[in-house]
Design brief:
about 220 residues; alpha+beta; Chitinase A, domain 3; six-stranded antiparallel beta sheet; 3 helices; about 30% helix
Length: about 220
């Protein structure tokens, strides 16, 4: 009788051990599933962060894009349609970005040729036509007085080769010295011409810029 009870206890212990082993294996499997899910979530968050940062960088357009000769309009953007040809220039319309200088627009007839007026002489290196420059700038549309682009809102200057921007910049910035500030009055033919640019620069729109040259570098040799 005692031997039979011992066998029953042994069977019960063995069954209990199998149950505990199965529960332990199931717990380990659940842990692995949870860890794998956590890793997947982390990877998804990292990918989202990378995409977000990449999108944010794309929004920080510099003057090489904002004032290039390209006339493409971003998807969904409204493109100005009414020509500004012959319309007089008006004063700046709206508040200046923090830190931006005033733009002394010549109110009245739009510029028919490139106007260059040094507001502050520089004392550094002379900008050459093939230079790569670093500048702060602010641009105003002649007929509306609207500030359509500037570096101050982005909180950092723009760097670009003078060969990659509108003719008014290519012709109007060489000769400046680093540290100098110049007013540019750019006729439409040296800006975006009859195509205009986006919603803020109408076809045939002359432009006004105040440009401060912070640095100028010669092209890389070789």
């Amino acid at each position: 009788m005692s031997s039979q009870k011992n066998r029953q206890r042994a069977v019960q212990r063995a069954r209990a051990e199998r149950i505990r082993a199965a529960e332990l294996k199931a717990a380990q499997r659940r842990k692995r599933i949870i860890q794998a899910a956590a890793v997947a979530v982390c990877l998804a968050l990292i990918a989202l962060l990378v995409l977000t940062i990449g999108g944010g960088d794309k929004k920080k357009t510099n003057v090489a894009t904002a004032t290039s000769t390209s006339t493409s309009t971003a998807p969904g953007a409204t493109k100005a349609s009414a020509s500004a040809a012959g319309k007089p220039c008006v004063p700046v319309n709206g508040p200046l970005p923090a830190g931006a200088p005033a733009v002394p627009v010549k109110v009245g007839p739009p510029p028919q040729k490139l106007l260059m007026e040094d507001l502050k002489p520089g004392s550094g290196a002379v900008v050459r036509p093939e230079s790569t420059v670093t500048v702060n700038y602010i641009g105003v549309a002649c007929s509306t007085g609207k500030i359509f682009d500037n570096s101050y809102s982005r909180g950092q200057p723009a760097s670009f080769a003078l060969s990659g921007v509108i003719p008014g910049w290519t012709q109007g910035i060489p000769g400046m010295k680093v540290g100098g500030t110049r007013l540019l009055g750019i006729p439409s033919a040296l800006a975006y011409g009859p195509q205009g640019q986006g919603a803020d620069i109408a076809p045939d729109e002359p432009l006004w810029f105040v440009v401060e040259v912070l640095d100028a570098k010669p092209p890389a040799s070789g």
